[in-house]
Amino acid sequence: MTTAERTQLDAIELLMQDHREVESLFREFEFLQARDKDTAHVVDAACAELKIHDTLKSELFCPAVFDGVKEPAVQRLLAQVEEGHQLMRELIARVENAEADREVRDATFNLLSENVERQFELTETQVFPRARELRQLDLVSVAQRMQARKNDIVQGI
Known about the structure:
Elements: H1 3-7, H2 11-34, H3 40-68, H4 72-97, H5 102-133, H6 139-156
Helix pairs in contact: 2-3, 2-5, 3-4, 3-5, 3-6, 4-5
C-alpha cells in the first residue's frame, strides 16, 4: 500500500493495519522458535514496529480521543491503554537489553507478545468503537498527522 493510499484511511484503520503487521511478526516468531531457528530479525522488526505504533498512538490518537470524550469511563479506559503501553515499553527495553542471551530475549519477547495481544484486543473492542462515535473527531485528519509523524520517525532511523 502506498503512502497516498494510507493517508486516505482513517486513524483507526491505520492502527488496525499496524496491529495486523505486528501480529504477523508474532506468528513468524512462533514459527521460527518452534523450529529452533534464529528469531533475532523478527524480534528486532516487531520491536521497531511497536515503538512506532506506540509513538503514534500515545502522541496523536489517544490524546485526540481523550480530548473528544469527557466521560469518566472512557478516560479510565484510555488510562488503562496507557498503562498497557508503559508495560510494553518496559518489555521492549528488556528484550533489547537481552539480545546477547537468546533464551532470555525470546522468553521476554513471548511476554511482550502476550501483553500486546491483550492491548490490541482492548483497543479494538473498546477504544476504537468509542472513537468512531465521536462526531467531533476527524479520524482522517488524525491519520494524516500519524502518517506524517511515522514518516519522520522512519527517516530518522
